[in-house]
Structure formats: C-alpha cells, structure tokens
Amino acid sequence: MDRALLLALNEERRVRRAAVVVTDLVTGSGRLVRQADVAQDPLDETLREAFRSGQSRQVEVDGCALFLNVHLPSPRLVIIGAVHISQALAPMARIAGFELEVIDPRTAFATPERFAGSTLHADWPEEVLARQPLDAFCALAALTHDPKIDDYPLKAALQAGCFYVGALGSRKTHATRLARLAESGVSEDQLRTIRAPIGLDIGASNPAEIAVAVLGEVIAAMRGRIGVAG
C-alpha cells in the first residue's frame, strides 16, 4: 500500500468512517473507497455488499481480479446510566467485542468499584458526547429513567444515525418521552427507530436478564436483523 493511500485510510479510521481498499491483484494498484462515495463507484453493488458484511474477500468484476479489504470502525456501545442493568451489560458487551462506555453524572452510581474494567464517565452526557461524538457505528442504551439525563443522548444518537438506539421504560413512559423529543425537534421517522421498551422480548425480569435482552437486540441491529420500532 502506497503512502498516500495509507494516510487516507488512517484518516478514515481516525474519524470512525468505514472504507474499503480495492486492490487490483494483477497490477497491485489500490484505491480507497469511502462508504459515502459508493453510489458513484463503478463497483457500487459489490462494495455495498462488502460494507454490509464487513468481510474482506477476493472478487472478480468484468474479468478483473480484485481484493476488497474492508475497514469498519469497532462497534461502540454507549450506556447512559450506571444502574444495575448496566453493571450486568457492561462486561457482556466487552466480551462480545464492543468498545464500551458508561455515562452517568450521578457520582453515587458512577463509581469504579461498581464498573471495574469499564470506561466510566461521571459527567453529564452533553459533556462526554461533545468530546467523543456518536456515529453510525455506535449503539446507545438509555437506562436511567431520568429525562434530564436520557433525553439529550437519545436525541444526539438519532441525529448521528446510530445503528441502535434503545430506551428503558414502560410504553406509557416512552409515549411521554416521544412527546418531549418531538417538541425538541426530533422527526417522526427518527422517533420510530427508538427501541422501547428496550431489549428483545424474552420475558426478562431481573437486571441480568434485561442486560441479555438488550445486548441481543444491539447485536441483531448491528447484523441487520431487526427493523425499526413500530
């Protein structure tokens, strides 16, 4: 890989954008394709499948042998609320390969003792997400039941196009939440993508079981197996 191509790829990695390096296996020449530019590329459909699967592979297009080296940002799970569900969810998400962060301004809950091994921010979500913005390769789980803490990151996640946005609460609580978010300027289409009540419907009844349901739903969304809430 030549220096200019490597620098361009490293920049995409730095800003957490997906890219594919297309290499001609006969000539050895390579080029970088950003996900945002796929529609204008002659390998349109082949590249779309590469981004969907995340799998690098050799392909043949119009008699040319090419290797597609797919570079996707690591999936990141941002948990809002250092609650009991979060204590169970955090280690499971790390095992599943997620970059994991827990955010909660309530210092009585957000303690290293309760979240050993996890990246923990005892700050308001507004402050943390200003430093580390959400993106399309992020999942967000809002678990505090407190609008003052949950609403901002939910809106930020919808605006960033996160692949999963879920919120804890009953259907009545969620209806009230939707009204608040709509009043703040969130569109109906965006609101429909929030998974609430959060988690797969497996009859979960305690924090650990709810954590399993949430992680399962996040993974299903990441692999493209669930649609929008409705």
TrEMBL record:
Protein's name in the database: XdhC family protein
Stored InterPro entries: MoCofactor_Util/Proc, XdhC_Rossmann_dom
A Pfam family this chain is assigned to: XdhC_C
Regions that span the bilayer: none
Domain XdhC Rossmann residues, every copy: 77-218
Superkingdom of the organism of origin: Bacteria
